[in-house]
Amino acid sequence: MSFKKAQPGHSGQRGSGGGLWGALFCCGRPEAEEEAPSHQQPTPSHLPPHHLVPAASPMHVGEPFIGPIQLQDVNKPCLVLDLDETLVHSSFKPVHNPDYIIPVEIDGNVTDVYVLKRPWVDYFMEEMGKIYEIVVFTASLSKYADPLLDMLDTSHVIRWRLFRESCYPHHGNYVKDLTSLGREMGKIIIIDNSPHSYAFQPQNALPISSFIDDPADNDLLDAIPYLQELARCADVSEVLVANGGYVPRKSFHSRGIPVPDRKFA
């Protein structure tokens, strides 16, 4: 794959969600934003708008939120993954054939959360764990997200988990400040369906659509070839900026790559 190269030249207030939903999850669709500047590539219709100018300076000071790079991850770039509407979709309402049901205590009452996995998430996690240090960074509460990740991480590739208390409040949203990871910024990619989440470092983001319940969703599968190429780049943020945040999008099928067995979907 050929990318364009760049040319020289914590816990706190709640986000926009309300009620039980906002108290537990943080996975709403981003609000409409202004049209992207003309120097950027047009936004693909199924992806959120992506502005490459940071909304504010990083807020993190002090020690990193995660530990040193483990031996098996030395020389790997860092892939930061959102949880809700990126890897899974969760609901308080019963859904047909949920992958998981998570009992969560809220205000003294136990409520079931019904979870649907995004198609191909198991295969995606297994493949990405081979070439990236995996961090799941969610604005949801740990009492819901932690047991869910215990079940979701079947390949045991998630090295670090960060929850709402590791986010920074900014204009009513929870922002994931990537400087808090203590990793080289040119070696970090974040995949998140909400642009608000990476507002401090949009140059490190690979946008993805919001997953609700579409069984034909292939976004995680289609992201694998891009991420395999990006893992070999000296500075992933340079490549993402040069491509307006949207590396050339091709379906897995159109690349002539053998599609994995559907059992992984």
From TrEMBL:
The FCP1 homology domain covers which part of the protein? 72-230
> What Pfam families does the record tag this protein with?
NIF
Output the Gene Ontology terms for molecular function: phosphatase activity
Q: Which PROSITE patterns match?
A: FCP1
In this chain, the stretch annotated as Disordered covers 32-53
Q: SUPFAM superfamilies, alphabetically? A: HAD-like
Q: What name appears for this protein in its UniProt entry?
A: FCP1 homology domain-containing protein
Native source species: Mantoniella antarctica
